[in-house]
Give the backbone structure.
Amino acid sequence: MKTRSNTIDNGVRNTRVVMPRLFKLRVWAICLALAMLGTASSEAAIYNINGDLNDALIGDTNNDGIGDAVGDVTQPEITVGFSGGGGAERASVFPFALPSLTGQTIISATLTLGLRHKFNPNTSGDLYGLTRTSATSPVVTGDYFAGVLDGANTLLMNNFVTNNFPVNGNTLFMNEPHSVSGAGLISFLTAQSTALGGPGFIFFRVSPDGIELPSGTVVGFPSNDQYSFNAADSLTVGDFLPFLTFETESPVPEPTSFAMLGLGALVVLWRRKSAGRME
Ligand SMILES: [Ca+2]
Ligand SMILES: [Ca+2]
Ligand SMILES: [Ca+2]
């Protein structure tokens, strides 16, 4: 072990060798940490995606259980449930553009839709992720569903919106954000991203979990029995619009410059130490 007393022959070497032991340990620790940081790090990214303007309702206008008409895609408010008068059951679909996520792992995600009105709803609205993906965003009639459970698509939240005021109450203005997060949504996004294999569109749907067929034959139902959601087209300031946010992680494949720096410093220290031992 070298001490201050036996290294007085060379001023330059002296300044090196008498470096306090604790300080030397710290330098080693920092170099090692830099090296480890570079080889084991991952990159995180956050994506904030507004709903696509092609969001729309789909109607089953002849009440046969099959969707047959996509509503006006420019409407600021789209509905889910039974519409009186014309007698149509409706579901609403929200497309989102997904970027390429190759090499990334989704670690958290939240989807938010803005519930705008409740029109005497007697049924609840269930939130699904649709199995289909597409290179384009338009909603199609095949996206329609009404009923208790749609086994062909991914149920993300049962009773996403519910009636919580007296049946046959008045229409209520809500503008209330409703969100879903967690493992189910992460799993769905991961599956859709994999299916796309690059950028493309994914689709979420709110469906009524009750069916009222045909119009006018269900005694006691109000003229309207539905929810409405803010569409991406809404221009009203303060509206909660369709919004998807998620975070990804991806490993950094190459040792970074930090790692090279850390390894380089380790080599220099090791050489100096070896040289010191040989003296
Ligand atoms: Ca729209
Ligand atoms: Ca139909
Ligand atoms: Ca339900």
Observations:
- The chain is about 25% helix and 35% strand.
- Residues 4-41+255-278 form one domain.
- The first helix runs from residue 11 to 17.
